[in-house]
Amino acid sequence: MGRTGTRRDGAGFGRRAWIGLGVWMGALAVVSSGWAAGETIPPARQMELFHLLRQDCGSCHGMTLKGGLGPALLPGNLAGKPADLLEDIVYHGLPERAMPPWEGLLTRQEIRWLVERLIKGEVP
Amino acid sequence: MRGIGSRWMYRSWLLAACLIWPLVQGCAPLRGSGDMGVVIERASGSVEVVETTHKTVLSRVEGMGDLSHASLVYSRDGRFGFVFGRDGGLSKVDLLTGQLVGRVMQSGNSIGGAISQDGKLVAVANYEPGGVRIFDAETLRQVADIPAIGANGRASKVVGLEDSTDGRFVFSLFDSDEIWVADVKDPAKPVITKFTKIGSKPYDALISPDGRHYIAGLFGEDGFALLDLWHLEAGVKRILPDYGHGEKRTAVYKMPHLEGWGMTEDLLFLPAMGRHEVLIVERAGWREVGRVPVVGQPVFVMAQPDGRRIWVNFAHPDNGHLQVIDVPTRKVIQSLQPGPAVMHMEFTPRGEHVWVSVRDGDRVEVYDTATFERIATLPATKPSGIFFTSRAHKIGL
Q1: Chain B residues closer than 8 Å to A56 by CB
Q2: How far away is chain B from the Cα of A90, in angstroms, using its nearest Cα?
Q3: Domains plus CATH for chain A?
Q4: What do you get for the CA distance between the two ends of chain A, in Å?
Q5: Which residue of chain A has the CA closest to B203?
Q6: What is the tens place of the pLDDT at every residue in B215-232?
Q7: Is the pTM of this model over 0.90?
Q8: What interface predicted TM-score (ipTM) does this complex get?
Q9: What domains are defined for chain B?
């Protein structure tokens, strides 16, 4: 994706490494609790997805996910909405409401993983 | 010996001055603000105060909350910047002292603002709860609240808030397809003129440098809505109604921004929604006279101050690119790749340099606009908008 910071930025890399450790531990916990989707998304890709979520989805939904031109994506806002529906919306988009389809840029599995993180509020 | 003596005297005086003067005002050398500016650091709620003569960072001001999508307008003396944060925060920054001197949380979620022609009022456009709130520029005391309840009875998100002349602000209602003109000569009694059915889902707007023509971009359909503020009675006209020729547009991953001004003496360059094109409009008659193919979906389409070239950045996934359109030949003459996630460009007041924020590279790159050479790099944490004080004296910026 070429979207992560450059390595010559020492502080940025250090923080990434730190967050990366957190994601590893999170992934371990998830695997041990029997949930499998994160298993096959490599930690480096998980970091890219979180970055994409905050920075690019954030263009409309807000970097803090509290909403903007698009609705807020915090757990309270998503409560009661089925994960399958949310996954379909991300995959196909909602042309009438300015939501673009992420088909082609993200896999189904990545979208499902992100939707799960959003519903559970597990976004670093 | 006298030479040494006088140098010694000079040093003594300097030492004395630097010991006592800080008690008075911080030993900062006296300076003007005309070559200064602000770089938004979107992820850390901070801004860098910069100067463009030697291309340095002068100070860093923190504590401004969520600055993703933050923008800024300047006081008429070019000393204070009013920062509009995403979380509804309105902050006042003193560029000369590098201090945060005022801050109010004025809504839950805002998108930008404007300052009045006389510099007395700062207006903020809100998503949540919607509407426009207006503040005294001196004190940040709220002086007016204009809820944006559309003709459909719903509270609307407000976008494209611009200042015009004659004590007026102009803005668009995203959820009810309207443009409102608010006359706030008496802020206690705003007089609103409403235009309905202006086109589907206005997402942003620009105003011409003379404050006369307000142009809103439409998301829900091809085209733009034009209002002549010298002739409100003529109403809103649709321009470029068919630029997409009814073709299916590609998905839009980031809304274009119109406020950057792609306006030259006789032409206006606009980002096409969902297309890899920049549209060229003739200002006399507001007709499309051409289009330029570019590498991605344009976000900012900005004219150099001399009007000779247009600089364009792009939406995800092409946001590492920057292209330059030559106005006389209407062709792309330069393609640059400043780094990952190019967010914004800002020209020095007379346009010899352009500053470019590279969000994911954590840096700002400075280019010579004549040679396209990169001439400086400044560190910044997740930089987005760059705003120079020359905006203080321009209508609509």
Answers
A1: 253-254, 316
A2: 12
A3: 10-120 (1.10.760.10)
A4: 19
A5: A69
A6: 999 998 889 999 999 999
A7: no
A8: 0.74
A9: 106-239 (2.130.10.10)
